[in-house]
Amino acid sequence: MDKDAIKREVLSTIKDMVVAVIVVCLVLGSVVLYTGNWPPLVVVESGSMRHSSESLIGPIDAGDLVLVKSIDAREDVITYVEGVESLTVKGTNAVGTVVVDRTVSGKKAPHNTYGEAGDVIIYYKNGLRDETPIIHRAMMWVEYNETGGGSFDVPDIGAYGITGVLTLYSVGYLGQTVDIDFGEMLARNFSATGRPHGGFITLGDNNHGRYDQGGSMRDRPVNGDPVEPVQVGWVFGKARGEVPWFGAIKLHFAGDPNPYDEVGASGVPPNAWNNLFLTIGGLIFAAILIDVISHYRHVRKERKQGAEESGESAEEGEEENGTGAEEEKETRGSAGEDRAGENGLEEGVEESVNVENEGDEGRMGEEEGGKDKGDERRGGKMGNGARVGEAGGEKELEDEAGLSVEPAKE
């Protein structure tokens, strides 16, 4: 391989690397702009949101990467009771008196994400950012009402003054019954704020009705305190989209921090690993295929350029040959003209000599002709004399013989 080829290969490699870096930066920048968060993705560590024992596209499974879009106000999140098309609810006060019992339709229905109604939020328990954030579905927004000794209101379903239990029927893909004990919340010590407050009530899709502010988090308290309703400032963002399986790599190296609840690598469904390896293999194959195609096109381009350069060289050679032939032809023509001029000059000289010779020959012929004519004239005279002599002789003979001849008469 010559130096030019090596140089082209190095430049091509550098170009590919620069393009790859630019593409990564553009993709990452676009994701950050869309989510308004850094980091823009989180890894799902547990199976509390899964809808099956296998990893599925759609529901959130352990090992998935999820985009997190920031929120600024409570209205940026649509809760389960707002997004569900039909829901039966029943609420009581502290002594068991029913205050609400109806079937409601969500104000913003239908609104579904990850296989169920409502948005999924990522939040810090009791606002503590050194704690691992939780990714669960926002079930409802509750407001604390200080009148009458304190109670909770759920405006989205028209339930007010609840001091007992609010029951939701046929919730989620499991069709579970969820009992939210507001009386227990009112009795607890709100350590994060020092007083009762409202916020989001959250629930994992696979937690069988154990909502976070009640039974679900009792075995995992925050500094010994139960999880409180999630205030807007505690929300890192709402989940949007997913990149399945790739987060399992991070969980594999991080280990199992909470193996009792299948949190971490042990929570990743078995088929997720198979799908991950197949996807990585497919990406590697695609990269190799693209590289092969690119190399093939590059080789074809070089061959084409080489053929064009060869054609141009051949044309230049033909032009040079043609120019040389024309110059040789012109040279030959000039030489021919010179020779023709010399021949013409020689022919002219010869013609003039021939003309002079012919003139001499003419004069000589005329002189000879004159001599011949003189001889003829002299010969004629001699003939006449001979004829006269012959006639005189015949007459003399006739006279001597005494004969005469007369002309015949008719």
Topology:
Blueprint: H1 3-35, E1 41-43, E2 65-69, H2 80-83, E3 87-92, E4 98-104, E5 112-113, E6 116-117, E7 120-123, E8 134-145, E9 151-154, E10 159-162, E11 165-171, E12 176-181, H3 182-187, E13 199-203, H4 212-216, E14 235-243, H5 247-254, H6 270-401
Antiparallel strand pairs: 1-2, 2-14, 3-4, 3-11, 5-6, 7-8, 7-14, 8-9, 8-13, 9-10, 11-12
Mean pLDDT: 78
Rg over alpha carbons: 63 Å
Q: How many structural domains does the protein architecture include?
A: 3
Contiguous uncertain segments of 5+ residues: 352-357, 359-410
Range of helix content: 40-55%
Q: How would the global form be characterised? A: elongated
- How much of the sequence is in beta strands? 15-25%
Number of helices: 6
Distance between the termini: 136 Å
**Helix/strand/pairing category:** alpha+beta
- Sheet with most strands: 8 strands, antiparallel
N to C succession of SSEs: HEEHEEEEEEEEEEHEHEHH
Count of extended strands: 14
